[in-house]
Amino acid sequence: MGVESPVLELRGVNTHYGAVHILKDVDLAIYSGELVCLLGGNASGKSTTLRTILGMVKPTTGDVVLNGQVVTTQSTRERVALGVTMVPENRRLFKRLTVGENLEMGAFLRTDADGVATDREWVFELFPRVKERLNQKAGTLSGGEQQMVAIGRALMARPQILLMDEPSMGLAPALVQQNFELIQQIHEAGLTVFMVEQNANMALSIADRGWVLQTGRVVLDDTAENLLAHPDLQASYLGTTEK
Asked: What's the predicted TM-score (pTM) here?
C-alpha cells in the first residue's frame, strides 16, 4: 500500500503583491474527504491563499499541486477542469439569471450530460429549496437561499475539492448556523472541503483540521479539536477576544 497523496498541496509558497511579501513559506496538504479550515484575522493572507490555489495569483516561489500534478503555471480554467472549484465570498451569483441557469453555469466545462443530470438531482436532494426556486431570479432569493444556490453551482462542477471563501460573511446571525450545517452536510456526503473563515468557533466545530495564518505564516496546524482547546487562540492569532 502506498501512502495516500493529498488532493491539494501548497509547497513552500511565497507570494508577493509588488514589494509586499504576503504568503511566507506556506506548506499545506489536504487529503481526500477532509474538511479543513484556514483561520486568520484581516490581512493574514487567507484570501491570497485561495487566489494562489486558483491561479489568480502566481507564487514568487513554491508550487501548487492538485492530485499530485504541479499546476503552478496553469490557468484558473485549467485548474477548474482538474477539479478545484470555489464558492466565492458573498456568493456572487448571476443575479439576473434564474436559479436553474446559475446551476448550469457551474457545469459549463463539462461534456458528460448524464453526469450533469445526476449531479443536478444530487443538488436538489441536498437543497430541496433550490429545486423549489428553480425558475426564480437568483437576485430575488434570501441570503440563505443564495448560499444554497452558490454551493449547488459549485457542486455542479463535480469538484475534487471545494474551496469556500468566508462562507458566513454577509449572512444574518440566524443563518450562520444553518450555513455551517449545509457545509457539514456536503462534507458528510464525501466531498473534500477547504474553507477560509473568520468565525473560528463555528469553522472548527465542523472541521477535521485547521491552520491559523498570521501575517502570511502558518503559526498553528492541528486537529480542529485541539485548536478549539488552544489557550487564547482567538486573542493571540485572530485579533479578537471573542469567546
From this structure: 0.87
